[in-house]
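Friendly challenge for the regulars: who can give me the C-alpha cells for this chain first? No prize, just bragging rights.
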Amino acid sequence: MQSKRLVVTISGASEEGPGEAVVADATFANDEVIVRSVDGAELVRANVTPGDDPWVIARRLLPRRRANSFWGPLPSGRSPSV
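First reply, four minutes later:
Bragging rights claimed.
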C-alpha cells in the first residue's frame, strides 16, 4: 500500500484573494486508489489500470470549484432579516 498527500490548486492568487486549494490524502493498493479528506472521510475511489499513474488519477478525482459549489467561497457576512 502506498499513500500520498495531495495539494491541488483550484484557483490562483489574484487581487480578489489568496487563491484556493484542496488538500486530501490518497492511498493506492490492489489496483485501486482511494481519496480521503484530511479528516479521514472517504471522498471517492476508482480502479487504476496497470501502467496508469494512480496519483494523477487521484488528483483528477478531487472536486473542482466550478463543478461543486461546496468548494466555493462562503457568502458575505450579512445578517438575516427578522
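The chain has a mean pLDDT of 81. The helical segments are 54-61. Your move, everyone else.
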